[in-house]
Fold Major facilitator superfamily domain-containing protein.
Amino acid sequence: MEKSPGLVEDIHSSNSQMGSEKGSAPAAYPEHAVDASGQPVYDDAEVRRIRRKIDWRLLPMLTFLYLASFVDRSNIGNAAIAGMNEDLALTGGQYNLALTLFFIPYVIFEVPANIVLKHMRPSWWIGIITTAWGLVVTFQGFVTTHEELYAVRFILGIAEAGFFPAAAFLLTIWYCRFEIQTRFGIFYLATSSAGAFSGLLAYGLQFMDGLGGKAGWRWIFIIEGIITVVAGVAVPFVLPDSPDRVKWLTPAEKELLQNRLSQDSGTAAGKVAVQEKFHWGALKDAMLDWKIWFAILIFWGTTVPTYAFAFTAPKIVADLGYTAANAQLLVVPIYVLAAITTLVATRMSDHYRIRWPFIVFPYCFAVIGFVGLLAIPHPKLPGLTYAFLFFIPGGCYPGVITMVGWLGANLAPTSKRAIGIALGISLANAGGLVGSNIYLEQEAPRYWLGYGFSLACVCTGIVATLALRFFYKSANDKRDRMSEAEIRAKYTEDELLLLGDKSPLYRYVL
């Protein structure tokens, strides 16, 4: 039996069914012990041991791949101050257009990509798209005109579109709802780490300027792209698919895992389907679910400000009077704080089994930063300007990853969850289209539009979070007033499974 320590410390009871699993089971499972209501109970230590096995095999690879994906889409900001704009004779408008072109296909292709995901092994699909975008990033180091840069950025958006929704969905088929947020936090830690990592790597790669007759900014794309290609080739051999496919879980362990996932509906009597095939009705259900569309307003509270910031942060710091190389390094501590706040918020969200406060409170932190940046008489007080920059990713990043977990936790069955997550994330990333165009060169160093529009998005996200929380609470209260006997008299077990999150036995996570 595996004895290694867990990659993720277990911060709550393994019984994720809101108190429906108590006691311990005998060693011989899946013939579980049952409680007074006939529901199975599990040995906490055994569940933790299995979860650690999953953590070690799933999280490191997914986290690295997301780090690569965010670095590869945002390293254009590092290249810009390392000489790319001058060498390609880019105007401010042309640079912003290059940023924008990435997001058009990125938004369009996320939902189709997750439909493909339901028809093939996740490891193969993720491996294919990772290799593809790594090649595109490598080719970006060879562009000679702004038209070529436009084309490469557009193709990069197509290649990267499927990764994040596929990875988010993959996590939901391995973990219960009050286990997943901490894992999402570790996975999304790659985003906050990407800003720091990209700055350090770009700083080092700039010193390759002239090597092989190529400018330093070209090596930023070439080296980072090659690293991604190598990772993509390795994915099918490293990344596990669904629990029923892997060989490192015993049949009994698989049975325990599948039982816990199917019972993860928020009530002792409720169940959700976890292995159903994709059907087109799931697409309709997701498209017509207003809660997914409403959640996009919350996502935009992060995606607009953070994409805009990721592309512009090196230049904002450079505008404070630092050299390009030093500006790359000074961005690093900003993202280190974001990594810390993301981990703290996600762990606390799982511990207290609640989501909405860990969107609202971090967003309030970001509000302080944007108000401060708007109030400072730029270009005076550069030290204070730099200090307020810490509030932006530090407040926005925890909110978006909590929202991803909140959305996934309230969608069932898995076909609807796959489409719903992809739809929510794809339209959330439309915020990148806006964020690419709100920090205008002619407004430097004040960036009234950039800071002001971002502030409006964060405030809208706070209001939308409180409204969605009100709906979920009202729906749960209404379902609580129905007895199980009434529900069973009206629906068959198959009908309840088909209803998914609409089932009267299902409870929304707040």
DSSP finds 20 helices and two strands in the chain. The chain has one domain: 59-502. The beta strands are 33-34, 40-41.
